[in-house]
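User: Just a sanity check before I run the rest of the batch. Below are the structure tokens for the first item. I only need the designed sequence back.
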């Protein structure tokens, strides 16, 4: 939706006022490679998308906060002193969690605001619609409250909101990518130290296609926590052999090979093997990108999927079917699931001449085999959170 139409909606909802109406945008993200690595302290390679969550916000003259979205009917109103008192289980929790964290971090919400959100990221698809709400809220309120807007600190704050207020034990990748993306670049993030760089994502004639399986991501929270737990178990055991080890992803594949026999539990060993190899794949992918070797990049995407399917066991039939069909298209260099797994999206690297065929054939075969209708987004990489000024 155009900003002008959103402004009209805002005024219809909250009325006209003398105060300035400000507009902010935080993107969604796609993880190109490096899955289930962030909480294991290794490298990930996500990119911000070109679409996300737009937030229109205006200061009020009293102490009320009002939240609404164009996406759902649910709305909420409370006073400044009631911030965080009631957890609703609704989308507003992402915004309220950020307000709670803003206060803890020394930038409390001191004025009333009217907020209207407009999300273009499909919900529950693993493209970080929640991180996008969190980051846009933190950035907007810190800007309006006159605080310093450091996008690395904002990512950490948004992650705390998700961990502590919403109660989802996610890593740092999503909030970081949403806050720090850069157009035409991927973000190489070291999740332990938060050192990062923008890697030019020059894919020339190749396009990124995100395929939404439209499979609701059931089980994701419990299975996610279980994977985290298994990685911690592996770390505890390996730490006895290598006391300096703080995270599993610090192990290189050859180091791990020598230690693997200490992991007697087969499942735990497979989880750890995924982490060590996936981390190495991220580094190899970046080399591939630097050398313009997209075939190498695609091959690593494929390997990543197999590892998530067989070693980490976070794929599902729908993701596997879509990936398999994607790879049948002649112009596809690589295809994998992206995000936490158990549903959500795939990401494929496809030659521009094959995009039409991809969308048509993969969509049809996927529907025939799963009974679900897929959606596809052919997309480029966008910027991280920002304020949209009049002339943009
Ligand atoms: C979810 C989490 C991230 C990350 C991915 C898996 O998106 O929010 O922190 O762990 O899963 O890579």
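Assistant: Here's the designed sequence for the first item:
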């Amino acid at each position: 939706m155009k900003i002008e139409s959103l402004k009209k909606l805002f005024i219809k909802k909250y009325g006209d006022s003398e105060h300035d109406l400000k507009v902010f945008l935080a993107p969604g993200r796609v993880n190109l490679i490096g899955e289930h690595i962030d909480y294991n302290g290794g490298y990930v390679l996500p990119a911000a998308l070109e679409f996300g969550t737009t937030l229109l916000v205006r200061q009020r003259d009293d102490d009320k906060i009002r939240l609404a979205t164009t996406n759902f009917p649910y709305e909420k109103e409370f006073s400044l002193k009631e911030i965080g008192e009631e957890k609703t289980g609704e989308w507003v929790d992402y915004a309220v969690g950020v307000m709670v964290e803003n206060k803890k971090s020394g930038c409390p919400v001191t004025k009333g605001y009217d907020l209207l959100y407009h999300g273009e990221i499909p919900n529950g698809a693993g493209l970080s619609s929640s991180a996008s709400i969190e980051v846009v809220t933190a950035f907007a309120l810190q800007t309006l409250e006159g605080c310093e807007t450091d996008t690395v600190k904002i990512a950490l704050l948004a992650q705390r909101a998700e961990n502590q207020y919403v109660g989802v034990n996610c890593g740092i990748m999503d909030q970081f990518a949403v806050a720090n993306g850069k157009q035409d670049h991927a973000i190489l993030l070291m999740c332990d130290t938060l050192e990062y760089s923008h890697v030019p994502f020059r894919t020339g004639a190749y396009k990124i296609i995100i395929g939404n399986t439209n499979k609701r991501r059931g089980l994701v929270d419990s299975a996610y926590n279980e994977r985290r737990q298994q990685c911690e178990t592996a770390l505890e055991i390996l730490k006895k052999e290598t006391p300096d080890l703080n995270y599993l992803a610090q192990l290189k594949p050859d180091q791990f090979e020598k230690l693997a026999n200490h992991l007697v539990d087969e499942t735990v060993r497979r989880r750890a093997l995924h982490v060590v190899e996936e981390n190495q794949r991220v580094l190899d992918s970046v080399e591939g990108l630097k050398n313009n070797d997209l075939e190498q990049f695609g091959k690593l995407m494929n390997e990543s999927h197999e590892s998530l399917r067989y070693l980490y066991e976070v794929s599902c039939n729908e993701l596997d079917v879509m990936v398999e069909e994607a790879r049948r298209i002649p112009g596809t260099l690589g295809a994998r699931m992206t995000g936490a797994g158990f549903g959500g999206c795939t990401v494929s690297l496809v030659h521009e001449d094959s995009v039409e065929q991809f969308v048509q054939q993969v969509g049809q075969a996927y529907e025939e085999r799963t009974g679900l209708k897929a959606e596809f987004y052919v997309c480029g990489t966008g910027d991280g959170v920002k304020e949209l000024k009049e002339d943009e």
